[in-house]
């Protein structure tokens, strides 16, 4: 029985879906199904029941989940104990991901992590050079040097100051990032094209916090991650909902232990 098979099984159990687990882990669906089948053959029991909505755990699956949680906790403790306490884990990501996701993780969990804030387009080069241990990026990267170790989806909403009166979106100023690979910029440009918004109404600001501040003084509006928090911000209902992927990549030849708290949601 392989430890990675237990990780795959735990992800399937948590998401109640082989397809969702494959997407999160960066595998193709048949590979996930095959690893579950290997576990079932080794144990001589069925672990999951498939249905139209996904999967649910059978009794044997519930027992395996209980023990796999204990096994993986012990394995994680082992890895932490044999890793130098002073070893620093270097993370590189964008401003918005750092503020809406990474910051909370680093504040909640004791860790030895350095955080590098870069434009999305610069992250791949940092990982390739070995300057950082992991990148958290909006991009989907096809590079044989890299391995995807997790990810999640983020809903993108259109934010405004809660007391701002908006009569027509076509009259509003939109704040966008200058990085052409930024998905929020791409969503904004597509929205502008569909709603006849002039290019002159799109103002480039490279600071996530500055964009929030400009929204709060009613200078304009912006597409931002749904995790964005500020006392007087509210969202503008739209017909269509935009979702973007956030991906975690390490180098294939990396021997550093990826902190679980970093890639686990919640």
From TrEMBL:
Keywords recorded for this protein, A-Z = DNA-binding, Transcription, Transcription regulation
Q: Per its UniProt record, what SUPFAM superfamilies does this chain match? A: Periplasmic binding protein-like II, Winged helix' DNA-binding domain
Which GO molecular-function terms appear in the entry?
DNA-binding transcription factor activity; transcription cis-regulatory region binding
Where is the HTH lysR-type domain positioned along the sequence? 1-58
The keyword Transcription regulation is annotated on this UniProt entry = yes
Q: Which Pfam families match?
A: HTH_1, LysR_substrate
As for family, the record states: Belongs to the LysR transcriptional regulatory family.
Q: What is this protein called?
A: DNA-binding transcriptional regulator, LysR family
